[in-house]
Amino acid sequence: MADRRVCFDFEVEFSNGGGLQGQDFRLDLDGDDIDDQELAAFIIRDLRLLMVGSVRVFNKRLIVERHKRAVGAKQADRASAATSHLVDLSHATEQGRIDRGGNGSTPVDAPFQCHAEGQDLSHLPLSRLIDVPGVLVRLGGTAGRAIDWHHFVPVACRGHAVLIHTGWDRNWRSDHYCEGHPFLTERAALYLRDQGALLVGIDSFSVDASPMDARPVHAVLRAAEIPVVEDLTGLSALPAAGFRFSAVPPRLQGAGRLSIRAYARIDGG
User: What 3 state SS string does the chain have?
Assistant: First the structure.
């Protein structure tokens, strides 16, 4: 069968300002077709773009043309540190300011929190909470509060704890910490689920927007039995990859949300 390629134009708008355009861009196809979302993901991943606000694909057409790349060729980022060390990612909290639900501290949510048939924290596998390979998505300084699926395309989500650094932790204990905070869209949650993330963490009040009458992000992640860690801090000290994340709660039966001590171990290189 003759090789197929897709030819298209695109526009990328960055959430921190500026943009990028491409005309008559060509991509090898393994199958017969590709949708616009897959093309957008390819652009972000292949060009290693960060802080992408939106991607628009247009003038798309399929052509018969010999492939220009080796099928399945991949590139991988490698991150290392001079020495292995630990980074504390939990807020310091005074005694008596933490309730049973972990409010007032850095908490972890289990599927039990939203789904009675899900696992409570006492049954959640330790492999989901301890020494989990991590990747960091840096979004500090971006415009807007909503974090969409395309922000996660540049990182390897599968088999990793995906931590989201927004910088919102600087507002901890302030009057507006719980309002106007960065949050994930439902499409982002679906993408993280489909890409095989083991855990999702954020240095913001919640992965869902406030007020939280509906909690679509929690619902998607918990239904997939993906633990959620909120109210993290200190993520600026982490590299983009090359660390392991831990967030261990007490083994309390019937609990879906508890305070934890979160930390990362940065691997030595």
Answer: CCCEEEEEEEEEEECCCCEEEEEEEEEEECCCCCCHHHHHHHHHHHCCCCCEEEEEEEEEEEEECCCCCCCCCCCCCCCCECCCEEEECCCCCCCCCCCCCCCCCCEEECHHHCCCCCCCCCCCCHHHCCCEEEEEEECCCCCCCEECHHHHCCCCCCCCEEEEECCHHHHCCCCCCCCCCCEECHHHHHHHHHCCCCEEEECCCCCCCCCCCCCHHHHHHHHCCCCEECCCCCHHHCCCCCEEEEEECCCCCCCCEEECEEEEEECEC
